[in-house]
Amino acid sequence: MLLKDYLRKLPADSLDWKDAEKSLEIISTAASHSNSAIRKMENLKKLLEVYEMLGEEEDIVNPSNELIKEGQILKLAARNTSAQERYLFLFNNMLLYCVPKFSLVGSKFTVRTRVGIDGMKIVETHNEEYPHTFQVSGKERTLELQTSSEQDKEEWIKALQSTIDAFQQRNETFRNAIAKEYDDMPIEVSTAELGKRAPRWIRDNEVTMCMKCKEPFNALTRRRHHCRACGHVSTKP
What residue stretches are annotated with the FYVE-type domain (predicted)? Predict the structure, then answer.
């Protein structure tokens, strides 16, 4: 702040102007890196806390994971719409749907379902008997949830939708960048050549997306599989 004030009051034709401006740029860059490191450490601390609450059984302590929101919520049963107490942990790439454990020591929650953000949809529902409800639909499961207030519902919907939008934007940017990288890579192999000789297997670290559909790989729904005929890496065995 002092350097900014000094630079603002310093005449533009001063001999010290360029040195002061460069110093301010260096300090600003250092401060930015420092703040980024602090945020990463705070996020890692949160991940470790959640890891302990889940009984150290869920593999969530990863620098790429970011805890967005957590909180108690009610889940409406599919058959009789009775409300059951649940707890949600929303990350930048998944939603953990948990059941509370009534224990004085050890883990506090058991993960019932891990719902990926990829393909997730949020729908606001209207139930006269159970107000403040909304629906989370994912590839793994669909949940009808109820909050304690309209404000709480809006906050959850906003957090979930923002996370979905950010995830889709990252994936789109990633796909566009990778598509350019592999535009020149031969995808199709002549069927006449298949089986004549052993193919060269494409190494896992050579590709980050399916060589057929060009969707990015992940550890849950799009795992790497090698084609024994052509050696390419795809999402389907």
Answer: 204-237
Cβ atoms within 10 Å, residue 210: 19
Nearest to 226 by CA among 214, 207, 216: 207
* Cut 0.70: pTM above it: no
Task: Please report, rounded to a whole number, the percentage of residues in the chain having pLDDT higher than 90.
Answer: 25
* Token duo for residue 156: 């959850």
Provide the token pair at 200. Answer: 């060269």
**Residues 220, 227 contacting (CB under 8 angstroms):** no
What's the mean per-residue pLDDT of the chain? 78
Contacts of residue 68, Cβ cutoff 8 Å, sequence gap at least 6? 90, 91, 92, 159, 163
Type of residue found at 204 = D
CA dist., res. 52 & res. 40, Å (int): 18
H or E element: which one contains 83? strand 83-91
